[in-house]
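Objective 1b: paired records.
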Amino acid sequence: MSPWTHPVWCQWYSGGVEEDTAAVSAPWLQDCVVSLSPCSDLMVVAKGSKAVFLSGMSPKTQTLTFNVHTLLTFSPSVFRSSTGRPDWTCIVVGFSSGYVRFYTESGVLLLAQLLNEDPVLRLKCRTYEIPRHPGVTEQHEELSILYPAALVTIDGFSLFQSLRACRNQVARAAAAGSEVVQPPPLAYKKWGLQDMDAIVDHSSVGIMTLCVFDQMRNASILGGFHASVKGSLPAMSQYITVGEDPTQGSSQPLLSHVALAVASKLTSALFTAASGWLGWKKQNEEEPTQKQKPKVEPATPLAVRFGLPDSRRHGESICLSPCNTLAGVTDDFGRVMLLDVGRGIFLLNWIKALVSEGRGESSPSAPLPRRHAQFLVIYAPRRGILEVWGTQQGPRVGAFTVGKHCRLLYAGYRLMGVNSVTSQGWQLHTQQVCLFDPATGALRTVTVPFHLALSDKKSERAKDLHLLKRLTTLLKSRELEPDYLESEAQRVLLDIKHPAIKKQALESLLANKNAPVSCLTNITRLLLASLRGKGTVHCVVVYPVGSFLFWGCLIGESPLQKVCDTLQETGISPQHLLSLLLSVWLSLLWWTSIDFQRRLCFLLSLGAVESSWDMQCVSPWWQQVRSACVQSHSAAAALLAAIVAHHAAKDNITSLAETKFQSEWEAVSLELEQWAVCVRQLEDVLALQTLLCVAPLKGTPGGATPHCSVKALLEGGRGGIADSVAKWVFRQDLAPERLKDMLQRRGEAQRTEQPSQPVLREKSQEDLLVSVCQRFPDSLSPDLLFAHCCWEYVVQWNKYPEEGRYLCCAVEHLKLVSSPHIQLGISSMMWNTFIVKRFSAAAFLMEKVGKAPKDRLCRRDVGMGDGATTSFLGSCVALLQILMEADSGIEEVTPPELCVEEVWGGAEGPASIVELALEQRGIHYPLVQHHCLLATLLHTAMTFNLRVKPLSLFDSKGKSAFFRELVSIQLMPSGDMDPGLVSLRQEFLLRVLTGWVKTQSEAGMAPASTRLDLDSGDEKWPSLCLDLGTLLQVNPDILRRHLVCELYNHGLDPRAEQVMLEVEDKDVLGSQLLVLTGQRLSYSLLHTQTQTKPAMELLARLPPTLCTWLKAMDPSELGCLSVPLSQTSRLVSRLIEILPENHGQYSLALHLLEAVEVLQGED
């Protein structure tokens, strides 16, 4: 039974008198309110005071008290049923009295509340949406209710909890036969909409945060020149309304204002109605006999933030996109306008007649993760047309003829009560755009393939794949008319653009057993005719046809002469036959049979030489063979074909020369020279391809093995060969020193001139590289290869910045380049392209936080973790040092001349890295040194986790010179520095030395089994600090004295004695060490847990002044407490040596020596 002929529906519509189909299909639906659930499983149609709930079961009629103004259906469900559908659906009904009532799908009233005394205009719902991009604000669920002059919003979470409780309470009351207890009122926000004459529709965009520019712009527009802005960006909820004067307006209440407006409304009505609901009602309380009129809370004024005024245009409806960035607006002119929600401007305008519109998003029927795109769906009732447009600037992707009295339905929301946890795994497709036809009762869903949203090549390929899928589905149908199959297959094959997909479609069609032969013949002929006109026959049908014609001949199953006679009878041109033959040969993977090659030679010779051919010209026949060989990615097959063709061409040319000249002279022609070059090129390519096909290390990035051909190398420019080998070096993770050793072997092999005889053994990785380098002595010279390896590693590091060793390897490769000109150019390009941006970010970050930043901050600002940042800064120091060294030696060496092998002299393409490096301008050495100093300070601070503001260690001139072009002339700091800055620098360097000594002490105290091997580079830090002191105008003797004291402080006496020899001011050092000696002796005599009797006797014999002095010492300042007495005795002896006899503390040192010797004797 049709849903529109059901007795319940007919009785509700016509008052008990059934009407014919024509009456039912009248345009009465335009006067009804229609709502469709987001899962499209329930539709509600209301008119006047009656509503019908339509579902898969019989429709139900509900009689209501007041006239229905608007409807909304949603599914409040966290849990799903066994069928995957929602548990239940809630119907929200807005009445002319201002009431909003909530019903179940069976018509049971759950909740009713009077929110305003005006008629309800629109009900809109916003549900949880999974954020598709990082940084997108997660929106909360919300129900918004529009009145003529007010907007009421109800939080979705509290509404969901209330409705669930109401449903459970109604079910318990029905089971027990008791009355339903009145639930407590809903908490809501109520806004009084101002500055608009009339409002007919709205949309709730959700929480948004302005950028700094928009905040300042709005403040200047609203507050004028002297307006002030807050330091933090305010969060606000955005509401868009449409109506009259202005046509469209946007309001944005701050969240802080929202909280103030709602707080008073929650407490005033909650507990007055919650006693019976929550179980607090006493038994002796009685219900009031007369119901009082519910109190209506006043609205909080909300002004329009900005609007689009148009006195003649009246907005009628608005529909928000799923991503909350665009909205479609209709007006009384019959137009549809696309609104940019964020910027508040109209992007497009469609001129239609009596248009209603909807929005939707489409996704392909592919496994997750799905790709989504937005489309605008427009329905024009007068014309009866449904159109689909791509957004934002997309064309019309589809148009359909439908009825003139349909309704376009779009929920615009999903299931309620879903959050980030429960939304995982949901496969239910919601937010569908549907078209309801009242004439037939059909509900059609608009589904748009994803590829229609793409453009250019991606769109063409996606469309071709869609057509291929359609053909595959068509071929799987068992009962299919041959004529229909032929017409559909022809249309699909002609519409497919990409040759590879067209070939796949043709093969699928030819492999189908149910297709008639006549059908296949007609389709193939039509396709061949179409392809000949486009010149793409070779890509689609050459190999299948070539294999059919020549395979039997090549393997010896068909006689050669018979095949030739047959081919001649076909009338196919020799050039086409040659193309078919080469396509078969170059696709083979084995050619071991000598007879196999002999047959190929015979076939290639057919039609090769004409009697009128000039020997000093290039033969078009053999040129076609060479073109196919140089384009082939199968180097072995192409080389064998070239050798066979070279032999056949030489025989033909020799016989022709003997016929023409009757001479014993050997024929020399341009053709043979061309073949010699081609064979040599293919030999080189085969060697290179063999090297590139070596399996990379597991887990190494770098992409798939590149295809190699003569044409590709020629088009890759002069650096194409070195670039391919550099990518191979990266995939194999070859260390720079090992690569250097391999290249040295190549040089030794060239000097000894070893014969290149073939050896029947599997070549190692090193042998292959040496062999390739011998074939390309110029293109793979050491400097060129190291330069390309350096660039490849830095490119890969830029992709994976956490892999700091990639950048270290790049710098190591750069160090191995012998030419300072190449070093200078590569270093400058690396700095400008990859380094300076991250380097400046690290400097500003450390300056901001005042210390070595933690991992989270490094990832946010620099794009890598703290460990990778430390490695990066160390590589920056090494790179800038290389740059300075190259600039110093550039005048002593002439620029290198870039050569290329003779057979590869025709290479044309982009300039190589080395060519670009030689074009770089010189640098300003002081500026590079200035940056190197900053990089060293940053690396030092990150290594030892120090507190410092690196940029504050420089004056204004030094700060302004940072991060400028290294070739520019900047005003550098000069003369004596400010004493305050020098003091800060000295304090920083002293902390560096302290940190280094601590690492040495900790490494020495660690167990041998767990001790980390210290790099020899760890010994560089003291000398580095002294060098930095010279550059930063810090007295190096102060640094040496501090280093000696820190080494003694941590018990590293032997190292301290070495550094002590370089100290100039021994008097000051002696005073410092005297205090340290006293701390050691004080710990031994006074602060040990078990004091010995000799120690107590010694204290009694010591002079009172010495005892008092020792008691004043604080041993807790020592880094190492347990120091052998022998070391302390040696320290006191050194003190007596460096202190002069007239020194004020010389006698104290003598007493200390006596005390230490007594203690040492007792031990």
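Objective 1b, second protein:
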Amino acid sequence: MSQKVTPSMQSLKSLPADYRFDGSPVSDRLEKSSGGSVSSTNSSIPRKVGLRNGVSRTATAAGDTEDSPYSGNGVFVEEQSLINGVDPGTTAMPLPQSDGDERRWSDTSAYARKKILQSWIQLPNGNWELGKILSTSGDESVISLPEGKVIKVISETLVPANPDILDGVDDLMQLSYLNEPSVLYNLNYRYNQDMIYTKAGPVLVAVNPFKEVPLYGNRYIEAYRKRSNESPHVYAIADTAIREMIRDEVNQSIIISGESGAGKTETAKIAMQYLAALGGGSGIEYEILKTNPILEAFGNAKTLRNDNSSRFGKLIEIHFSESGKISGAQVQTFLLEKSRVVQCAEGERSYHIFYQLCAGASPALREKLNLTSAHEYKYLGQSNCYSINGVDDAERFHTVKEALDIVHVSKEDQESVFAMLAAVLWLGNVSFTVIDNENHVEPVADESLSTVAKLIGCNINDLTLTLSKRNMRVRNDTIVQKLTLPQAIDARDALAKSIYSCLFDWLVEQINKSLAVGKRRTGRSISILDIYGFESFDKNSFEQFCINYANERLQQHFNRHLFKLEQEEYIQDGIDWTRVDFEDNQDCLSLFEKKPLGLLSLLDEESTFPNGTDVTLANKLKEHLHSNSCFRGDKGKLFTVVHYAGEVTYETTGFLEKNRDLLHLDSIHLLSSCSCLLPQAFASSMLIQSEKPVAGPLYKAGGADSQRLSVATKFKGQLFQLMQRLGNTTPHFIRCIKPNNVQSPGLYEQGLVLQQLRCCGVLEVVRISRSGFPTRMSHQKFSRRYGFLLVENIADEDPLSVSVAILHQFNILPEMYQVGYTKLFFRTGQIGVLEDTRNRTLHGILRVQSSFRGYQARCHLKELKMGISILQSFIRGEKIRKEFAELLRRHRAAATIQSQVKSKIARQQYKGITDASVSLQSAIRGWLVRRCSGDIGWLKSGGTKTNESGEVLVKASVLSELQRRVLKAEAALREKEEENDILQQRLQQYENRWSEYETKMKSMEEIWQKQMRSLQSSLSIAKKSLAVEDSARNSDASVNASDATDWDSSSNQFRSQTSNGGGSRLQPMSAGLSVIGRLAEEFEQRAQVFGDDVKFLVEVKSGQVEANLNPDRELRRLKQMFETWKKDYGGRLRETKLILSKLGSEESSGSMEKVKRKWWGRRNSTRY
């Protein structure tokens, strides 16, 4: 389907996955013409409709490339060059489209004609510029550039551009023309809109924005968790990893690569944040996130290219429980750049922790460690760079301390860590002085030397001997060798590097202890690899040599996963596959790893020779590797290796020393003799490493045998273990791109980005992925996963038959899949259709199950409610019956009490009414008698006269006054009786709350009783006196009474009786007795009423009687009523006294007058 063309013009011309055309279906497939062109019969123009994420979509866009059955899988055709004036419109780019069971094809000649009007042209400076073709003549074309400049170029140098509708697509596989300028333009377009993530098939490309972008946080995490946001993102990669781990039960890995400054560390932290958010809940995820500040402080440094460059590689393996929650983690580190501790280039810094310690240490810690400012330490001052713009080292130091607390590093251990750091800094200040003519030296006994000895806890003399002398074993003898100045400096720097390296390893060990999984291990994990990217500087040393070797190995892993293994699997499964060539770096890896004539083998061999130097190493490499196509020897110490990312020239200066990385036994013995625990642990660790099996004889005469494995050999072993671990996982690749070298936001350098894209192999990834079958599944797994979707039950058939039946039922086009011997292979997006159908079916099944279970639960709940209701009815019935029985008993008791109270009240009322009736009857009868007998002789005279017998005659006015007073007394009596009833009811309610007034009321009652007795005695005396006088006249009264038996028989008889002298004298005396009797009767009634009221209030106050009233207030009211009655009663007594005095003054009987005076005198002597 393709033909060979000029490499500069080679591209893939498939339309994007979500690009659709409108047109009539044709019955014939496209056929390849003899000229290599492809034609069709019909054509249509694409319709643009709207934008999604800043990218135009067509009217029938499928949206997501995963769910589209044709995403990124158009027909590949070769580009036709503009030669001999051939009309480019004759080239058609058809795209298969499915509508139900039909296949529709559309011609795109109009689109192609419009498309070819814009092309990319490479300027002399190497940048690409988009130009418009004005005309074409022969092999030349006239191009108009955007600034209006018109140039003439060779047509073959033009690279076709994509239409505007594809500007800013989020997946490079969607580009119609996949070429370098189109990829650069698409990334730049998205970068300018802060869309820093772009997919390149299975690879995520992340461009460092060098600023904060609003793409992170809980809102975005929730969106990607619910898959409501499908834009490329680190969150999406992490989400895919955790879902595949749970679904497939296969460990996952996220491999983050890129050169220094591309944002690998931040990308790793973002991925960890998403995994912590989804798998959090146990608290361990917070500890995992807090390992980043610690590792960055101790393992990152400022370089010329990056302010926070990782100078080590790390693999964080996060373990998950069966429920998908984080259960622990493990951190593995690779190749810490120890040389940075003692040596920094101009404008760079050593590790961050040194500057953070100097800036953020507390005064107490500063005094304890004898710390000074950073510029006073030689290790830190040699680069003349002490700070980073926008970074507060003091604040970062406090963050590191908090992180150490969270990962359970004790305060004592933290102080020991800071002491080791201060010891390293003070070691750099240790100076030496020459002591003889042979240039032998010894350390200067100054503040630096004493501070180092104090901080690591050793004897200062032992430290002096270690830095100035070396004990060498020659057979059975020990020879003491004095060190020269270069040797002493090397010994000092080796000790400093070893202390820092061991301290770093110890911290990683403590972190792993804190994050240990233990018994919670389930075997499910996601590994995040953050390792240094490919490096190429003006001067490349041993560190760049190891880093680039690691990147070669990672690139091969990348190639094998995406290219080689994919094509080999196609061949093994018998898939009809057009092989696509790709660059393999196996030759470069063989150059490094081949034995015995590989770079690493020759380096280790030269490191074993006592007289080996950097020059001899370079000569040996050139001698043995000159015929290798990936190696080129240069002058002097230089040699060049052709890496997958480009050629890198190395200088062998320092190679042997750094590869040996030897620490003499004297230094190890010094650390083991220290009183501090950390140096002792460091010495034990180094001694244990020296006992490991030796890969080769690396013992150097006069050197140390503390570390027999070379750095390169150990690193190679770590790298092979890493590759083995990654090989057992499903990898997810993130390629970080640095847009410029000045770390400026918004600046996009095409050349730099293009170089990194070539190193990452992004274009090769897209090219091969689009032309292959990236999704594959075994027959058994496919039938087991989707077999239940079949309409007909063919469960008894073999898995292959079931799989084919599934494909036929869902009308998946034959070119969209391939059936292999053991697996089914699908183009991109095909499995998404089945997954959507499966998810919808499962969702429906779950809905039915949930409905049925809900129905069962509701029935069960209804039965439970019915049983509970019956049980409650029995319980409530029993309770109500008991309450009703109690209420009935109380009701009967209340009825009994009420009957007694009402009977008492009725009796009192009856007695009162009876007494009032009697009093009223007596008063009326008296009035009638007085009216009938009082007119004689009184109305005419208008005064009081005395007859011959001395009887007193009462005037009519006096009788009227007496009658008026009688009526008034009767009305007052009725009112008092009503008040009495009210008071009696109220006082009955106060009987139970009157305890505190009981004593007082008893005393008042005694006083009142005394007053009552005195008053009663006075009344009795008055009655007796009146009775004596009345008995004297009884005989005359009896005669008058006998004559008055019939008042109505004759008026003359009545007048004769009333005119009798005895009757006239009896009338006033009877009136006086009547008034006195009524007063005495009223007094007794009032005494009884007030006594009962007081008794009731006492019972209310004491709580014997329940009543809704205030006893204190009722007592005050009763007292006021008593005072009012007493005042009224006294007034009436005085009036009666005056009347009786007048009557008594006219009587002739001296004895009676004496008795009256005596009574009234006693009455006046009585006071309430």
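The first strand starts at residue 48 and ends at 52. The two ends are 138 Å apart (CA to CA).
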